[in-house]
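COMPLEX REQUEST
Ligand: iron/sulfur cluster
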Amino acid sequence: MQNKDLQNCPPSRFSPSMRGKKLALLQKSLSHRLISWFSAHQRPLPWRQTTDPYLIWVSEIMLQQTQVATVVPYFSRFILHYPSVHRLAAAPLEEVLSLWAGLGYYSRATRLHRCAKFICTYRNGRFPSTRTELMALPGIGRYTAGAIASIAFGQSVPVLDGNVIRVLTRLLAIPDDIAAPVTHTLLWAIADQLVPSAHAGTYNQAIMELGATVCLPRHPHCGRCPVQGLCLAHRRSLQNALPVKTAAPRPRKSHCLTVVIEAAGKFLLLKRPPGGLWSSLWEFPTFHTITEPTTANRAAHIIRSALGLYVNSIRPISPLRHQLTHRTFEYQIWHARMDMPPPGLSLPDCDRGQYQDFAWVHAVAERPCGAITRKIRERLC
Ligand code: SF4
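STATUS: Structure written out below.
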């Protein structure tokens, strides 16, 4: 049904010369309507009403791949702990990761911390004001640089996230596959031409807010959309068929065996190596590529051979599944007990190389841990 609808929508309409004329006509009306609507309807979020580049930067990094409602309490707590880029740069990474625990995609926290150190070391704690200079900072890409440059410094540069992509493809009835790099390039060029020379930061926030609250992925609220009169998708009843996106490949499945080892009321945690998934976070010892259902004897044998520990008892915990965007993790979990924590330990390998350190802790929250470790801990109660 959707493909049939799109047959009336030829992709060639967006040749560069056509685009220039159409977009010049659209730009003024679009920004005027969006900015007026935004001033009356924006959600009161803690990173709004500020032009502090540090606060805008932190909020934009937290909002990547994460819902606004989830980010709000994390943002407030983070800013309370680190009210300035200097305070963030001076904090130990372990502490930053602890504050991030539960928000997911932990490499964001590591990058944020690294960039804060860079800004303090090489720029005396001051953010540059242009998109080009911002993009030269470690871990800041075109989107984040556009958001900071426009909202904090008023530079006339666009942003392009999932919400903006949806609004633009519908407004202009663009039928091209948004998963294709060429479409992405086209959309950046369109966004560049539509951003107004004045109030670019407000316009950028407004178009993102429209995508987040009105122009929803399914069943957009066209009846209360401030730009309905400009929208080609609405005019052609294509709003539910756009944007077009080829299906993502099915997430890869990974099988893991996790062992919770308890001794005298303390739990054994291991620190993951830096880089990649769950970089530098602590977790219960986890062994990957174990696809067969494991018996108690086999689990005890793995603990003995990988960690050099002899346990007194072992019992299964109900298995867990953890879903990331591109991977699904299936965990078999065992809870083993021993008398006393030994002073030393041979550090085994995990999926990304060797674990870096170990600790026996009363509460897993004492160390920065990912969501799966905390979920497993809850299952022990
Ligand atoms: S009219 Fe509908 S489809 Fe068009 S931009 Fe507004 S909400 Fe989106």
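REMARKS: The chain has two domains: 2-235, 252-380. The mean pLDDT is 91.
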